[in-house]
Each structure stands twice: as structure tokens, then as C-alpha cells.
Amino acid sequence: MAGTTNLTVVIDLTTKTVTLTGKVSIRENVILHITGYGTAGAADLHCAIVYDDSLMAHLTPLVNYTTYIGGTLSTNTTEIVAEFSRKSSAAHLRMSFVIWDTTYNCLLVNDWIKVYNNPYDPSMADPTAVDPIGGVEYAPLANGVTGGDSHTHENGDGASLSSYYMRRTPTGGFFRQSTDGNDIELKDRILGTWHTLLLANGSVSVGPAV
Amino acid sequence: MTTEACTITFNLSALTATYSKAMAKREHVPLVCSNVTGYTAANMYAKLCKSNDGEEVTHSHFTLSGATFVGELELDAAGVLAFFETANATPLKRLRFTLKLYANATGTGTPIITDDEVYIINNPFTSAMEA
User: Fold this and answer.
1) Whether pLDDT at A185 is above 50
2) Pick from B1, B77, B125: which is nearest to A148 by CB?
């Protein structure tokens, strides 16, 4: 079984830094006691240890307690254990300790954390692969339209495409979609009547007024 | 719950910019213009530029919201990420940008507010971390 350790985490939101009290090693269950998270919601948060652009440990969601938020972050992952392969038993690595708010695309913390080696004992559980960040898309790349431009949707958010952008008869137009959606109809510019456009046996014609 | 991202407030009377906290790469940063008398929301344009060559990396327009104008600066724009990439930034590296506010819709001419000291913290998130 993995060992258990406690880590007290005090966030400084102004600088996105953190004060950590506790010593974290690999192959542990790290019980987090986090304060200073402001108005962020525990359910929106991801706590992670990152090293060399890879997730080493990851916990989400966090849990609300009366005066703090927390949860148990496993450092018994194949990724973090592999980083300590062939290192001395007293070795430590400086990794990034981060807390992300994936709902609001916000970084609460990005600071250093020292992670220590943990000499293997046969009674320890085998490490498991770290859980990737799933079910959300944290701060996706802005679209390529204008590099982060913000726009108001014409006719308001949620405007019906069929009402505004694929309307049956374009304003002032001389063509439209038939009522059943299967044909194109043309407007006689003299008579103002609508006729179905027909292609049959290689010849184009129009039907009677509809 | 609400965002704990930095809010940038432009005071259009005093022509100042204030920052509520640090900013990080990939964040969506709310922008607010206060004391807007004499200005039109649709004409406001905030521009974030690289500090070294002044090239724009992202920008925001504004819309009217009560007595203020509001916008959003998307620090996940390709230009922002590329600047960090080019700088080969370490995980906790801060890079300096220049933020300017223009009173015309195209972000050209002379800005009404220029702040030379906008630092953005690196963010170790990569899309490879997503399932």
C-alpha cells in the first residue's frame, strides 16, 4: 500500500504562488489541505504536479470542506516513479505544482514543489498511470479568425441558424428552398410567382407556379 | 463560483490601467473600462503586444455593460503561446508584454493608455495533458 502524507497548501492568488508545508515523496497518497482559493469552486479545479511538460500527478475534482478544499493526490504514478529511476534514494526533483480552474480558464497556482524519492519496499502498491485532464478543454487555442477577437453574435447568442442564416427566402432573393426542403424554387421576375426548378433527363425546366 | 483571473480596469477619465493580480498564459482575462463618458464601446480596442518588437499577439473589442465597457483578453491566443515558445520559457518564467488601449475600432494611431509593464506568467499546461 502507498504511504500517506499531509500537505498544507496556502495560495496567494495575487502572485499565483503557494506556501507548502509538508514533504512530498513519490509512491504516496498526498492529503491536500488548501486555503486561499478565493471564490474559485472546488469542482472546477485541477491540482497537478507537472515535470518536463508532462503530468506527473493529477487530482480532480477537489472537495469542499468547511474551511478549506482538499482531496488526495496520488504520487504513486508510473510517470513520476519513472523520473526517479536510477536516482539515489535521497534524490529530489523540483517540479511544478499547479492548480487550474478549467471552467474559467484560470491558473490559480504555478509554483515549485520538491518531490523526494522513496526507496521501494515490496509491500508498496504498483504505480498506475496518471489520469489525464478529461471531460474539459482547458484554455483551448483561440480560433484563428483574429487571434482572440471577441464578437457579438448577430441577432444575439443562440440565434436560430434556420431563421437568420439559412432562411428559406433570402431578403430580396429570387430563389428559395421548397417547403418540403427537397427542391429549389425560382421567382419569376415579371409575374412574381414561384416555380420549382427541375432537371429531368438532362434538361432544365421550371414547373407550374407553386 | 467565479473566476479568479486577473481583471484589468481601464479608467478612461484618469487614463490609467490597474491589474487586480498576476496574469498567466492561457487565461481569459476580463477587461473593464470605467468612467467612460465621452467614449463609445464599439470604438475601444485593447491590444497586447510583444515587448521586443511591438507585434500584436491578441486584442479585444468592447461592449457596453451598464455604465462600463467590457471585453476579454484571451491569453491562449496563438501569438501569446508562440512568444513563450520562442523564448523557450521555463515553467515559472514571466515574459513582458505591452498593453495598449485605443479609442478607435482598428487599434491604430496613438493609444490613449500605454502600459509598458505587463508581465504574464508561464502556464505548464499543454494540450497533451488532456484525454
Assistant:
1) yes
2) B77
Q: What does the pLDDT read at residue A161?
A: 45
Fold topology of B8-129: Immunoglobulin-like (2.60.40)
Give residues 139 to 158 of A whose Cβ lies within 8 Å of B.
139-142, 144, 146-152
A180 inside 8 A of chain B by CB: no
- What A55-59 contacts at long range (C-beta under 8 Å, 24+ apart), as own/partner pairs, is A55/A79, A55/A130, A55/A132, A55/A133, A55/B129, A56/A80, A56/A83, A56/A95, A56/A115, A56/A130, A57/A30, A57/A130, A58/A130, A58/A131, A58/A132, A58/A133, A58/B129, A59/A32
Q: How far is A3 from chain B (nearest CA, A)?
A: 26
Q: For residue A90, give the H/E element and its range.
A: none
Q: How far, in Å, CA of A7 to CA of A30, rounded?
A: 6
Q: How many CB atoms lie within 10 A of CB A11?
A: 22
Which one-letter DSSP state was computed for residue A77?
B
Nearest CA in chain B to A13: B21
Q: What is the ipTM of this complex?
A: 0.89
For chain B, which residues make up each domain, given as ranges? 8-129
Q: Examine the fold and report which residue of A100, A116, A132 is the final residue of a domain before the chain moves on.
A: A116
Domain extent, residue A186, equals 169-209
Where is average pLDDT lowest: A92-96, A192-196, B44-48? A192-196
Do A95 and A198 belong to one domain? Answer: no
pLDDT value of residue A124? 81
pLDDT, greater one: B89 or B34? B34
pLDDT of A143 strictly over 60: no
